[in-house]
Amino acid sequence: MSDPRRLDRRQLATALREARQLTLHATLDLDDTQWRVPFDPGIQPVAWDLAHIGWFAEFWVLRGPHRIGVDAHVDAEQPARLLPPDEHYDSARISHRQRWQIELYSRAALTVRLQQQLDECLHAIANAAETDAALYHARFALYHELMHVEALAWTRSLLGHPAPNGITMREVAPAPPIHIAGGEFRIGHAPTAAGFAFDNELPGATAQLGPFEIDRHPVTNRQFLQFVRADGYRRDEFWPGAAGRHRATLQRQHPARWRRREDGEYELRWFGAHIPLPLDQPLVHVSAYEAEAFCRFVGRRLPTAAEWEVAAPQFDWGNTVWEWTADAFAPYPGFRPAPYHTYSAPWFGSQRECRGGAFATHALMHDRRYRNFFAPQRSDVFTGLRTARSL
Fold it and tell me: In this structure, are residues 205 and 333 in contact, taking their beta carbons and an 8 Å threshold?
Protein backbone atom coordinates (compact mmCIF):
# COMPACT_ATOMS: atom_id res chain seq x y z
CA MET A 1 0.00 0.00 0.00
CA SER A 2 1.19 3.55 -0.70
CA ASP A 3 1.77 6.32 1.87
CA PRO A 4 -0.58 5.47 4.79
CA ARG A 5 -1.39 9.15 5.19
CA ARG A 6 -2.58 9.44 1.56
CA LEU A 7 -4.86 6.43 1.12
CA ASP A 8 -7.31 6.89 -1.73
CA ARG A 9 -10.93 5.76 -1.55
CA ARG A 10 -10.23 2.22 -2.70
CA GLN A 11 -7.24 1.76 -0.40
CA LEU A 12 -9.15 3.30 2.48
CA ALA A 13 -12.06 0.89 2.02
CA THR A 14 -9.69 -2.08 1.98
CA ALA A 15 -7.91 -0.83 5.12
CA LEU A 16 -11.19 -0.26 6.99
CA ARG A 17 -12.33 -3.81 6.23
CA GLU A 18 -9.00 -5.15 7.46
CA ALA A 19 -9.15 -3.01 10.61
CA ARG A 20 -12.61 -4.34 11.44
CA GLN A 21 -11.42 -7.91 11.05
CA LEU A 22 -8.57 -7.16 13.44
CA THR A 23 -11.00 -5.59 15.92
CA LEU A 24 -13.21 -8.67 15.89
CA HIS A 25 -10.20 -10.97 15.97
CA ALA A 26 -9.02 -9.24 19.15
CA THR A 27 -12.33 -9.75 20.92
CA LEU A 28 -14.68 -12.44 19.63
CA ASP A 29 -12.53 -15.34 20.85
CA LEU A 30 -12.94 -14.11 24.44
CA ASP A 31 -15.80 -15.62 26.42
CA ASP A 32 -18.53 -13.63 28.15
CA THR A 33 -16.66 -13.61 31.45
CA GLN A 34 -13.54 -12.19 29.77
CA TRP A 35 -15.66 -9.46 28.16
CA ARG A 36 -16.69 -8.28 31.64
CA VAL A 37 -13.31 -6.78 32.47
CA PRO A 38 -12.72 -5.37 35.98
CA PHE A 39 -12.52 -1.63 36.36
CA ASP A 40 -9.08 -0.25 35.51
CA PRO A 41 -8.13 3.30 34.51
CA GLY A 42 -6.08 2.05 31.57
CA ILE A 43 -8.60 -0.19 29.81
CA GLN A 44 -12.25 -0.27 28.71
CA PRO A 45 -15.12 -2.74 28.98
CA VAL A 46 -14.88 -4.76 25.77
CA ALA A 47 -18.48 -4.13 24.72
CA TRP A 48 -18.04 -0.39 25.33
CA ASP A 49 -14.81 -0.33 23.32
CA LEU A 50 -16.41 -2.01 20.30
CA ALA A 51 -19.47 0.23 20.39
CA HIS A 52 -17.25 3.31 20.74
CA ILE A 53 -15.23 2.28 17.67
CA GLY A 54 -18.37 1.98 15.58
CA TRP A 55 -19.93 5.11 17.09
CA PHE A 56 -16.81 7.16 16.27
CA ALA A 57 -16.90 6.15 12.60
CA GLU A 58 -20.65 6.74 12.33
CA PHE A 59 -20.38 10.12 14.08
CA TRP A 60 -17.60 11.52 11.92
CA VAL A 61 -18.23 9.84 8.55
CA LEU A 62 -22.04 9.69 8.40
CA ARG A 63 -23.48 12.36 10.68
CA GLY A 64 -21.90 15.63 9.60
CA PRO A 65 -21.63 18.53 9.44
CA HIS A 66 -20.31 19.02 12.97
CA ARG A 67 -20.13 22.02 15.28
CA ILE A 68 -19.13 22.88 18.82
CA GLY A 69 -22.25 22.92 20.97
CA VAL A 70 -23.12 25.09 23.93
CA ASP A 71 -21.69 22.44 26.28
CA ALA A 72 -18.31 22.58 24.44
CA HIS A 73 -18.85 19.08 23.04
CA VAL A 74 -18.88 18.41 19.32
CA ASP A 75 -22.43 17.93 18.00
CA ALA A 76 -23.46 16.29 14.74
CA GLU A 77 -26.29 17.57 12.56
CA GLN A 78 -27.57 14.03 11.87
CA PRO A 79 -28.88 11.90 14.76
CA ALA A 80 -27.29 8.61 15.80
CA ARG A 81 -29.03 5.61 14.21
CA LEU A 82 -26.66 2.66 14.36
CA LEU A 83 -24.85 3.04 17.69
CA PRO A 84 -26.70 5.50 19.92
CA PRO A 85 -26.61 7.33 22.24
CA ASP A 86 -23.83 9.91 22.08
CA GLU A 87 -23.96 10.25 25.86
CA HIS A 88 -22.76 6.64 26.20
CA TYR A 89 -20.17 6.29 23.45
CA ASP A 90 -18.60 9.72 23.03
CA SER A 91 -15.50 9.43 25.24
CA ALA A 92 -15.65 13.19 25.88
CA ARG A 93 -19.16 12.92 27.35
CA ILE A 94 -18.93 9.85 29.57
CA SER A 95 -16.46 9.42 32.41
CA HIS A 96 -14.19 6.42 32.47
CA ARG A 97 -15.89 4.82 35.47
CA GLN A 98 -19.38 5.31 34.02
CA ARG A 99 -18.46 3.01 31.15
CA TRP A 100 -18.76 0.12 33.63
CA GLN A 101 -22.13 1.35 34.91
CA ILE A 102 -24.22 1.77 31.76
CA GLU A 103 -26.15 -0.97 29.98
CA LEU A 104 -24.05 -2.15 27.03
CA TYR A 105 -25.00 -3.84 23.78
CA SER A 106 -24.93 -7.64 23.70
CA ARG A 107 -22.29 -9.40 21.66
CA ALA A 108 -24.88 -10.38 19.02
CA ALA A 109 -26.34 -6.88 18.75
CA LEU A 110 -22.89 -5.34 18.46
CA THR A 111 -21.89 -7.67 15.65
CA VAL A 112 -24.94 -6.66 13.61
CA ARG A 113 -24.64 -2.94 14.32
CA LEU A 114 -20.93 -2.83 13.58
CA GLN A 115 -21.47 -4.49 10.21
CA GLN A 116 -24.21 -1.99 9.35
CA GLN A 117 -21.96 0.88 10.38
CA LEU A 118 -19.07 -0.42 8.28
CA ASP A 119 -21.28 -0.97 5.23
CA GLU A 120 -22.75 2.52 5.40
CA CYS A 121 -19.35 4.13 5.93
CA LEU A 122 -17.90 2.27 2.96
CA HIS A 123 -20.81 3.44 0.81
CA ALA A 124 -20.23 7.04 1.89
CA ILE A 125 -16.51 6.80 1.14
CA ALA A 126 -17.17 5.35 -2.32
CA ASN A 127 -19.24 8.43 -3.12
CA ALA A 128 -16.86 10.99 -1.58
CA ALA A 129 -14.56 13.24 -3.56
CA GLU A 130 -10.98 12.03 -3.96
CA THR A 131 -9.53 14.87 -1.87
CA ASP A 132 -7.78 15.14 1.47
CA ALA A 133 -10.60 17.27 2.85
CA ALA A 134 -13.35 14.87 1.77
CA LEU A 135 -11.52 11.82 3.14
CA TYR A 136 -10.24 13.40 6.35
CA HIS A 137 -12.82 11.93 8.74
CA ALA A 138 -12.77 8.50 7.09
CA ARG A 139 -9.00 8.34 7.40
CA PHE A 140 -9.23 9.42 11.03
CA ALA A 141 -11.84 6.71 11.66
CA LEU A 142 -9.39 4.16 10.28
CA TYR A 143 -6.48 5.29 12.46
CA HIS A 144 -8.80 5.54 15.47
CA GLU A 145 -9.89 1.93 15.03
CA LEU A 146 -6.31 0.73 14.63
CA MET A 147 -5.39 2.53 17.87
CA HIS A 148 -8.16 0.62 19.60
CA VAL A 149 -7.01 -2.68 18.09
CA GLU A 150 -3.70 -2.12 19.87
CA ALA A 151 -5.50 -1.04 23.04
CA LEU A 152 -7.49 -4.26 22.96
CA ALA A 153 -4.18 -6.13 22.80
CA TRP A 154 -2.83 -4.37 25.89
CA THR A 155 -6.14 -5.11 27.64
CA ARG A 156 -5.58 -8.80 26.94
CA SER A 157 -2.01 -8.48 28.15
CA LEU A 158 -2.98 -6.69 31.36
CA LEU A 159 -5.64 -9.27 32.22
CA GLY A 160 -3.51 -12.27 31.32
CA HIS A 161 -5.59 -13.40 28.34
CA PRO A 162 -3.84 -15.18 25.44
CA ALA A 163 -2.17 -13.00 22.83
CA PRO A 164 -4.10 -12.59 19.59
CA ASN A 165 -2.77 -14.91 16.91
CA GLY A 166 0.16 -13.40 15.03
CA ILE A 167 1.27 -11.10 17.86
CA THR A 168 4.99 -11.61 18.47
CA MET A 169 7.98 -9.54 19.53
CA ARG A 170 11.06 -9.75 17.32
CA GLU A 171 14.65 -9.82 18.50
CA VAL A 172 17.20 -7.08 17.84
CA ALA A 173 20.93 -7.49 17.42
CA PRO A 174 23.67 -5.39 19.06
CA ALA A 175 24.81 -2.51 16.88
CA PRO A 176 26.81 0.71 17.31
CA PRO A 177 24.87 3.95 17.93
CA ILE A 178 24.15 6.47 15.20
CA HIS A 179 25.77 9.91 15.23
CA ILE A 180 23.70 12.90 14.13
CA ALA A 181 25.25 16.27 13.36
CA GLY A 182 23.58 19.25 14.95
CA GLY A 183 21.68 21.88 13.05
CA GLU A 184 18.26 23.30 12.36
CA PHE A 185 15.56 20.82 11.44
CA ARG A 186 11.85 20.93 10.62
CA ILE A 187 9.72 18.43 12.53
CA GLY A 188 6.04 17.64 12.42
CA HIS A 189 3.67 17.99 9.48
CA ALA A 190 3.68 21.11 7.30
CA PRO A 191 0.16 22.55 6.84
CA THR A 192 0.66 22.63 3.09
CA ALA A 193 1.73 18.97 2.83
CA ALA A 194 -0.67 16.56 1.17
CA GLY A 195 -2.37 13.79 3.08
CA PHE A 196 -3.74 13.35 6.58
CA ALA A 197 -2.16 14.86 9.70
CA PHE A 198 -3.10 14.60 13.35
CA ASP A 199 -3.65 18.00 14.88
CA ASN A 200 -0.70 17.65 17.28
CA GLU A 201 1.64 17.25 14.28
CA LEU A 202 0.58 20.64 12.91
CA PRO A 203 1.83 23.19 12.03
CA GLY A 204 5.22 21.59 12.70
CA ALA A 205 8.13 23.32 14.35
CA THR A 206 11.78 24.23 13.90
CA ALA A 207 14.17 22.36 16.19
CA GLN A 208 17.71 23.54 16.94
CA LEU A 209 19.70 20.43 17.86
CA GLY A 210 23.25 19.97 18.99
CA PRO A 211 25.20 16.92 17.80
CA PHE A 212 24.09 13.70 19.49
CA GLU A 213 24.19 9.94 19.24
CA ILE A 214 21.25 7.60 19.60
CA ASP A 215 20.91 3.83 19.90
CA ARG A 216 20.33 1.96 16.69
CA HIS A 217 17.85 -0.38 18.43
CA PRO A 218 15.62 -0.19 21.51
CA VAL A 219 17.11 -1.31 24.82
CA THR A 220 16.81 -5.08 25.27
CA ASN A 221 15.93 -7.24 28.24
CA ARG A 222 19.59 -8.31 28.34
CA GLN A 223 20.70 -4.71 28.80
CA PHE A 224 18.06 -3.90 31.39
CA LEU A 225 18.93 -7.07 33.31
CA GLN A 226 22.27 -5.44 34.15
CA PHE A 227 20.37 -2.62 35.87
CA VAL A 228 18.25 -5.12 37.79
CA ARG A 229 21.28 -7.22 38.82
CA ALA A 230 22.97 -4.02 40.08
CA ASP A 231 19.98 -3.44 42.39
CA GLY A 232 19.09 -0.40 40.30
CA TYR A 233 15.58 -0.13 41.70
CA ARG A 234 16.97 0.57 45.17
CA ARG A 235 19.85 2.91 44.40
CA ASP A 236 18.88 6.48 45.13
CA GLU A 237 21.18 8.02 42.53
CA PHE A 238 19.02 6.63 39.73
CA TRP A 239 15.75 7.95 41.18
CA PRO A 240 15.82 11.69 41.96
CA GLY A 241 12.63 12.67 43.77
CA ALA A 242 12.02 9.06 44.73
CA ALA A 243 10.01 9.89 47.85
CA GLY A 244 7.15 11.13 45.66
CA ARG A 245 6.31 9.90 42.21
CA HIS A 246 8.54 6.80 42.27
CA ARG A 247 7.38 5.31 45.56
CA ALA A 248 5.33 2.46 44.05
CA THR A 249 8.07 1.59 41.57
CA LEU A 250 10.76 1.45 44.26
CA GLN A 251 8.82 -1.20 46.15
CA ARG A 252 9.85 -3.58 43.34
CA GLN A 253 13.24 -4.97 42.42
CA HIS A 254 12.50 -5.54 38.73
CA PRO A 255 9.91 -4.57 36.08
CA ALA A 256 6.32 -5.40 37.00
CA ARG A 257 6.00 -8.08 34.28
CA TRP A 258 9.19 -9.88 35.34
CA ARG A 259 9.41 -12.49 38.10
CA ARG A 260 12.45 -14.12 39.60
CA ARG A 261 12.67 -17.90 39.77
CA GLU A 262 14.24 -19.88 42.58
CA ASP A 263 17.38 -20.36 40.47
CA GLY A 264 17.82 -16.56 40.24
CA GLU A 265 16.85 -16.32 36.57
CA TYR A 266 13.93 -14.23 35.39
CA GLU A 267 10.71 -14.88 33.52
CA LEU A 268 8.52 -12.48 31.59
CA ARG A 269 4.73 -12.53 31.76
CA TRP A 270 3.81 -12.42 28.11
CA PHE A 271 0.03 -12.06 27.92
CA GLY A 272 -1.32 -15.21 29.64
CA ALA A 273 1.95 -17.13 30.06
CA HIS A 274 5.26 -16.83 31.90
CA ILE A 275 8.20 -17.46 29.59
CA PRO A 276 11.98 -17.42 30.11
CA LEU A 277 13.13 -13.83 29.82
CA PRO A 278 13.86 -13.31 26.08
CA LEU A 279 17.18 -11.54 26.46
CA ASP A 280 17.47 -10.21 22.92
CA GLN A 281 13.97 -8.86 22.63
CA PRO A 282 13.30 -5.19 23.38
CA LEU A 283 12.38 -4.34 26.95
CA VAL A 284 8.63 -3.72 27.25
CA HIS A 285 6.15 -2.65 29.95
CA VAL A 286 8.30 -0.05 31.70
CA SER A 287 7.31 3.46 32.77
CA ALA A 288 9.08 6.64 31.72
CA TYR A 289 10.59 6.79 35.20
CA GLU A 290 12.08 3.30 34.87
CA ALA A 291 13.40 4.29 31.45
CA GLU A 292 15.07 7.39 32.91
CA ALA A 293 16.56 5.42 35.80
CA PHE A 294 18.15 2.97 33.35
CA CYS A 295 19.55 5.89 31.33
CA ARG A 296 21.22 7.27 34.46
CA PHE A 297 22.62 3.82 35.21
CA VAL A 298 24.39 3.69 31.83
CA GLY A 299 25.36 7.37 31.82
CA ARG A 300 23.02 8.36 29.02
CA ARG A 301 19.57 9.94 28.65
CA LEU A 302 16.31 9.60 26.79
CA PRO A 303 16.26 11.31 23.38
CA THR A 304 14.07 14.32 22.90
CA ALA A 305 11.12 13.85 20.57
CA ALA A 306 12.80 16.10 17.99
CA GLU A 307 16.03 14.08 18.15
CA TRP A 308 14.05 10.89 17.68
CA GLU A 309 12.19 12.23 14.64
CA VAL A 310 15.32 13.65 13.00
CA ALA A 311 17.30 10.44 13.51
CA ALA A 312 14.48 7.99 12.69
CA PRO A 313 15.30 7.57 8.96
CA GLN A 314 18.71 6.22 9.98
CA PHE A 315 17.79 3.66 12.61
CA ASP A 316 15.54 0.66 13.09
CA TRP A 317 12.12 1.43 14.57
CA GLY A 318 8.57 0.08 14.60
CA ASN A 319 7.21 -3.40 15.30
CA THR A 320 8.95 -3.47 18.67
CA VAL A 321 7.93 -1.00 21.41
CA TRP A 322 6.72 2.54 21.80
CA GLU A 323 9.71 4.55 22.94
CA TRP A 324 9.63 7.05 25.78
CA THR A 325 11.17 10.43 25.01
CA ALA A 326 12.40 13.12 27.38
CA ASP A 327 9.57 15.50 26.43
CA ALA A 328 6.23 16.23 27.94
CA PHE A 329 3.47 16.05 25.34
CA ALA A 330 2.95 19.67 24.31
CA PRO A 331 1.60 21.58 21.29
CA TYR A 332 3.77 22.96 18.56
CA PRO A 333 3.67 26.77 18.34
CA GLY A 334 0.57 27.80 16.41
CA PHE A 335 -1.37 24.63 17.30
CA ARG A 336 -5.07 24.61 16.50
CA PRO A 337 -7.32 21.73 17.53
CA ALA A 338 -8.89 19.64 14.78
CA PRO A 339 -12.66 19.08 14.56
CA TYR A 340 -12.14 16.17 16.96
CA HIS A 341 -10.90 18.78 19.40
CA THR A 342 -10.42 16.48 22.40
CA TYR A 343 -7.89 14.22 20.65
CA SER A 344 -4.79 16.14 21.81
CA ALA A 345 -5.56 19.35 23.69
CA PRO A 346 -6.81 17.84 26.99
CA TRP A 347 -3.61 15.82 27.35
CA PHE A 348 -1.00 18.51 26.81
CA GLY A 349 1.24 18.84 29.82
CA SER A 350 0.07 15.74 31.72
CA GLN A 351 1.38 13.08 29.34
CA ARG A 352 4.82 12.04 28.09
CA GLU A 353 5.52 11.85 24.37
CA CYS A 354 6.33 8.46 22.84
CA ARG A 355 7.59 7.70 19.35
CA GLY A 356 7.94 4.66 17.12
CA GLY A 357 5.51 1.76 17.15
CA ALA A 358 5.01 -1.48 19.06
CA PHE A 359 4.69 -5.10 18.00
CA ALA A 360 0.89 -4.65 18.19
CA THR A 361 0.86 -1.37 16.22
CA HIS A 362 -0.48 -1.68 12.69
CA ALA A 363 1.90 -0.67 9.91
CA LEU A 364 -0.54 2.00 8.73
CA MET A 365 0.16 3.84 12.00
CA HIS A 366 3.89 4.01 11.28
CA ASP A 367 5.02 7.57 10.60
CA ARG A 368 8.09 9.15 12.14
CA ARG A 369 6.07 12.33 12.77
CA TYR A 370 3.40 10.46 14.76
CA ARG A 371 3.28 11.61 18.39
CA ASN A 372 1.88 9.02 20.76
CA PHE A 373 1.46 9.91 24.42
CA PHE A 374 0.91 8.16 27.73
CA ALA A 375 1.00 9.13 31.40
CA PRO A 376 4.67 8.67 32.39
CA GLN A 377 3.89 6.26 35.23
CA ARG A 378 2.14 3.76 32.97
CA SER A 379 3.77 0.40 32.31
CA ASP A 380 0.73 -1.57 31.14
CA VAL A 381 1.14 -0.27 27.59
CA PHE A 382 3.77 -1.53 25.15
CA THR A 383 6.48 0.97 26.05
CA GLY A 384 10.27 0.66 26.14
CA LEU A 385 13.13 2.98 25.26
CA ARG A 386 16.31 3.73 23.39
CA THR A 387 19.04 5.92 24.85
CA ALA A 388 20.89 8.96 23.56
CA ARG A 389 23.91 11.10 24.44
CA SER A 390 24.89 14.65 23.56
CA LEU A 391 28.21 14.93 21.71
Answer: yes
